[in-house]
Amino acid sequence: MTLEELVGCNITDKKMENVSQALEDLLVAAQRQDCLTVGVYESAKLMNVDPDSVVLCVLAADEEDEDDIALQIHFTLIQAFCCDIDINILRVSGMRRLAQVLGEPDTADSNGNEPKDLHCILVTSPHADDLKCQALKEVGSYCEESRCKNQWIPSLALQER
């Protein structure tokens, strides 16, 4: 491995860690402000009714979800809609970590209640200036940089802690 490759990898790894942390911070802040819409169907409904309130779309799936054709069709439709109206999209793996960040159980509870569908999460802002936090700027900047590199749907792996 050359020095350029080694330094490039370290910079990329650090950037990914920063963006991962920023995403986690953003999701927690948005959840506290009641600015999260969780679930594929709930997200589709909101984007149909009030797409201007959406500032970020997070599509989450792990390897075992890759064979779920229905989920992949939903992702394709949501991505197309987001691209059409210029909403930043981020593909995320690490469903267990995502559940931890949002304080959601990752399995059914003792009452038989299923966990929330975390495959699609929208960060919304009823007033565009309300969520102009550093974390949103960092995630948005990462999405924009990815588009400049012709990677239209950037991806990120959330790491267990």
Automatic annotation (TrEMBL):
GO terms for cellular component: cytoplasm; nucleus. GO terms for biological process: regulation of cell cycle. InterPro entries: GADD45 (IPR024824), Ribosomal_eL30-like_sf (IPR029064), Ribosomal_eL8/eL30/eS12/Gad45 (IPR004038). Residues 22-113 form the Ribosomal protein eL8/eL30/eS12/Gadd45 domain. Belongs to the GADD45 family. This is Ribosomal protein eL8/eL30/eS12/Gadd45 domain-containing protein.
